[in-house]
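Q: Could you fold this chain for me?
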Amino acid sequence: MLDREGPVPLYVQVAEIIQEQIVSGELRPGEAVPSEAVMEAEFAIARTTARNVARELRRRGLVHTIQGEGTFVGPLGVPLVKESRAIYLIIAKDVIARIRRGELRPNRAIPSEKALMRRHGVAKVTARKAVEHLRERGWVFTVPYRGTYVSAPEKWPTS
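A: Sure. Below is the predicted structure, expressed as structure tokens.
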């Protein structure tokens, strides 16, 4: 639990939590640390605070960052542990869940690529691939120069 009233900055508190996960082996060398978007949601902190967490962990020599890829446990050169599931599929699954819950309604726009990038802390190509995956399966359709919209429920896949 974060002490939001105390003298220790939030980014230092979150960095200490992640450092403990690294020391305990919960996060292993080469694994990605939580993205800025995940830290924002998990700890209810601002994006700049999450960015400072990564900076603090780098300062402590616990992680390294690869632009467009993420921040990983260990020094640069440690073999990266690949996600067991592609990140674009995780994003697509999140959008599908929001459609099923009624947060995203038929014939209404889904979040833009930029919004998906911010929410999930990913590169544009990853957000674009997630939207392409949703479109291929019938969850959404795209109107050129207008945006991407939730398909009618009868077009949603059954499996």
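A (continued): Strands lie at 63-66, 70-73, 140-143, 147-150.
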